[in-house]
Write a structure and sequence with these properties.
Layout: E1 6-11, E2 18-22, H1 34-52, H2 56-71, H3 73-82, E3 111-112
Parallel strand pairs: 1-3
Antiparallel strand pairs: 1-2
The structure holds zinc ion (2 copies).
One zinc ion binds at residues 12, 14-15, 17, 31-33, 36.
């Protein structure tokens, strides 16, 4: 038996874009795209760093952090090159008012619900 595809509406916690997402695409999304997630994470990290630096314990943690950064340099260099390219437009189907709701990612039509019911 084929049941309705369920959709929920989410708001990106970085750019505040609203989008629909179906159960199949949903992986605990809070951001509309990976670039938004990355930017939000960078912002959060800067906040944590400045807070740490104000205390002695924080300075110590910061040294550890820098060491970790150096160790992961290879990974970061690879990631940095991708920031030069424009961010991928992940939302393929933005919400259009007065039309049948569809998943903003895979485009499947479905029924809007507040939360996905438990299986
Ligand atoms: Zn966003
Ligand atoms: Zn989908």
């Amino acid at each position: 038996m084929c049941s309705d595809v369920l959709l929920i509406e989410l708001e990106c916690q970085h750019c505040e874009l609203r989008f629909n997402i179906c159960r199949k695409c949903y992986r605990g999304h809070v951001y509309c795209s990976s670039s938004c997630r990355r930017q939000a994470q960078l912002k959060a990290r800067r906040k944590v760093q400045s807070r740490y630096r104000t205390s002695d314990k924080g300075r110590e943690t910061h040294r550890c952090y820098e060491k970790m950064q150096r160790m992961s340099k290879t990974n970061r260099t690879m990631a940095d090159t991708s920031t030069n390219t424009p961010p991928l437009r992940v939302i393929l189907y933005p919400i259009v008012q007065n039309t049948k709701p569809r998943c903003s990612f895979c485009g499947v039509y479905g029924k809007m619900v507040d939360v996905f019911p438990r299986r």
